[in-house]
Structure formats: structure tokens, C-alpha cells
Amino acid sequence: MKLEKVVEPGIFSSKIDLEGRRWNVDLAEFEIPLRKIGRSIYMRIPHKLVEKLCLREGQKIRLLVVTSGPVPVAGLLAYLGPFKIGDRIRGIRFRISPAEKADEIIAAVSERVQPTSFSINRNNGHADCLMEFGHVAGNTVIRRPEHIVDSAKYLLAREAGKRSSSVEILEEYEEETEWVPLDSSVIKLAELHDVGAEIRWGR
Q: Is the dihedral of CA 154, 155, 157, 162 positive or negative?
């Protein structure tokens, strides 16, 4: 394992290279007393850091022992892994006839219910469509009512009726999904908790 510290001129921080990754070294510093329980030594992590890193009891971390320089200097690095978000997705699959009305209908409904994703597959005069409702879109946290799927079904039927079209609901479903945001620093973690999304660290 290679560990290299790099101090950049003019910047009040430092970076380290560890296992092929470049890490920023935060200026936050804590003095933590070690406690002995049985034959093991425990380290108490301050509440402020627990909240900042969204740590939870039972979470597994990877503990790395690091050394530096000809004079023995050692440290411990607690590796949490990539930041992930676990979310509950609710969705519906439906069929619109005729197919040429699908874009209009879905655009009108999407304006009201803000799906996180949708798709349209045209085939033999009808359009098989999918609309999903999660709680995170990009870096935005979305608060949704429990009846969001019922609202979408009602609006689909109404917008289809306005256009002399029909909508057939094929399936309703729920599923858990996990993804890594491109920039976790701009996501408000408290809002994720409020909508029931789970914050995780993992490999």
C-alpha cells in the first residue's frame, strides 16, 4: 500500500495518495481518548463527526494502518467507502393508445407530479410507458405524498380523455434502489432523512 502526502503551495490543506485515489485532508481535527473494554481498545467518535459523516451503529468500516518517513510515524485511517443513497422507488407501467398522443399526455402529467424518470416505447399503434417516483433527482430532494401513484393514474386518465385517447394501467410496483451521487456535497442530508431515503457508505 502506497501512501504519499502532497502539500500544495498556497493552499491551506494537503492531499494524500492512497490505493490509487487522491484524498483531500480536511482541516477538522479532533482529540479522541481511547477507552479499554476487555482486551480491546475503543475510540469514541464525536457527535459532530457522526452527524457530518452520517455514521450509524453496526456500520462496517475498513481500518488501515499507515506509516510515514524514516522516523516511525503511524496512523489509523478509517475507510468508509463511497457515499451512497438508498431510495424507495414507486412506479407504474401503462399503455397509451394511440401512440402519437403519448408525448403530450406524459408532458402534461409530468408537469404536475414530477416523476424522477419516465420512458416511452411505441409499438403497433400504442405506447408502452413507465413513470417512476423517487425522492432524489440529481441533487434535489423531492418530498412526495404517499398517494403520488394514485394522483398520477388520475391525471393520466384525465389528460388522455381530453385527447380522445385511452390509458391502460399494466402494473404498479415498488423497489429499493441504491446509487452514488455525482456531488454529495450539495445534497442536504437532513432532507434525505425527512423523505425516508437512507444514507449509506459502502465499497
A: positive
DSSP state of 148: H
Length of the chain, in residues: 203
Cβ neighbours of residue 59 under 8 Å, at least 6 residues apart? 80, 201
Q: Give me Rg for the CA atoms of the chain.
A: 25
Superfamily of domain 85-198: TT1725-like (3.30.70.1120)
Single out the residue of 108, 109, 106, 83 nearest to residue 95, CA to CA.
Answer: 106
Q: Is 9 a residue whose pLDDT tops 50?
A: no
The per-residue DSSP string of 64-101 comes to EEEEETTTTEEEEEEE---EEEEEEEEEEEEEEESGGG
The pLDDT score that the predictor gives to residue 169 is: 94
pLDDT exceeds cutoff 80 at 83:
no
CA–CA separation, 35 vs 28, rounded Å? 22
User: How many other C-beta atoms are found inside a 10 Å radius of the C-beta of residue 52?
Assistant: 12
Domain map (residue ranges) of the chain = 3-80, 85-198
Which grid cell is 93?
407501467
**Mean of pLDDT values over 110-122:** 94
Side chain identity, residue 47: H
Query: Using an 8 Å Cβ cutoff, are 67 and 74 in contact?
Result: yes
- Single pTM value for the model: 0.64
Classify residue 103 by its DSSP letter.
H
